[in-house]
Design a protein that fits this description.
Rossmann fold; globular; alpha/beta; about 240 residues; 8 strands
Length: about 240
């Protein structure tokens, strides 16, 4: 038995939800990329979730970059970030009796930068975070007729809201992992820049910048599934032991 995916609504917003074979000890909150593909029925991730008995919630966030700004494509009143904090996190408690300490945060591309930024802003809620091919320097897309043009007044304002500028030197998630294919020319430098800053601040983290598996593509995203999901589980287990 591999568990099952279902489409549900959380506070009126769609989400793809994975229920594992048995009652889960841990869960994953996954943020999708600009292609809007969640992990529903994704063979690589679903198999890992089944083997490790992980629940997963993949909320739909449109192409609003998971920011704390109102986006008409998402909602006229509630920002994507507030939806995650105020609606999606309580869903884990209601469905599986899981508190934030048992929830790992991860994302791909747009979702990867969203996951890292959210964890840097709220490390007490998200002690374990992983970013896959994270689109960290998304300010470079400003002025190219994307939704970013309506979310920010300038490229600099956009840059000021990126994950690296929400990093606190003393308050940060204890378990941070991010990876990017070295052939991912658009997003590699932003990941390397984050690595440089974390290293300069002495903040523990893990990276993989050497694995070649198709550039910025699902071939790469799926190839990294095992490394990412197992990192999340290991981090959650360590956090759990700290509370004993």
């Amino acid at each position: 038995m591999k568990g099952s995916w279902s489409r549900m609504e959380i506070a009126g917003k769609p989400a793809d939800v994975y229920d594992p074979p048995d009652h889960p000890r841990f869960a994953v909150l996954h943020l999708h990329g600009v292609g809007l593909e969640t992990l529903q029925d994704n063979a690589a991730y679903t198999q890992l979730f089944a083997d490790l008995n992980l629940a997963c919630v993949c909320p739909h966030g449109q192409r609003c970059w998971w920011v704390d700004r109102r986006c008409a494509k998402f909602d006229e009143q509630v920002t994507p970030e507030r939806h995650l904090l105020d609606n999606v996190l309580p869903f884990f408690r209601a469905r599986w009796k899981l508190e934030p300490i048992a929830i790992g945060l991860q994302g791909i591309s747009m979702g990867g930068q969203g996951a890292l930024r959210l964890a840097f802003k709220h490390p007490q809620l998200f002690p374990v975070v992983a970013g896959i091919a994270s689109a960290l320097d998304y300010q470079d897309l400003y002025g190219q007729d994307t939704l970013l043009d309506s979310l920010y007044d300038s490229k600099e304002e956009c840059r000021q809201d990126t994950a690296i500028l929400h990093l606190h030197p003393t308050q940060y998630p204890p378990h941070i992992f991010f990876c990017v294919d070295p052939e991912d020319e658009k997003w590699f430098r932003g990941n390397d820049r984050l690595h440089e800053k974390l290293s300069a601040l002495g903040i523990p983290h893990e990276i993989d910048f050497t694995t070649h598996a198709g550039g910025h593509s699902w071939q790469y995203f799926n190839h990294m599934a095992g490394r990412v999901v197992r990192f999340v589980v290991a981090g959650l287990e360590q956090q759990g032991r700290r509370l004993l």
